[in-house]
Amino acid sequence: MNSILAAPDVLNALQMKKRAKRREIQQSQKRLSDAFRETVSPLSKATESAYGIERLFSKGVMIYKGFRIGHSAFTTLRNLFGGKRRRY
Description:
Blueprint: H1 2-40, H2 42-48, H3 52-80
Helix pairs in contact: 2-3
């Protein structure tokens, strides 16, 4: 009988935790979408500030360097494990 009386308190506590987690998830989704939007659409930033063009160029260079580093890492790994090097 005691467990039946304690059930509303437990349910309320669970509902409060669920609401808090939902708020946390919504906030993290908003942060992720803002960061993605900032990364993908640099032209809007370019029109707002004087250094926008420089930022756009440096982001492009960083993306290019990241691609080159990733490509060379995968090529090295493939060659380490006996993969054939493709010649075009």
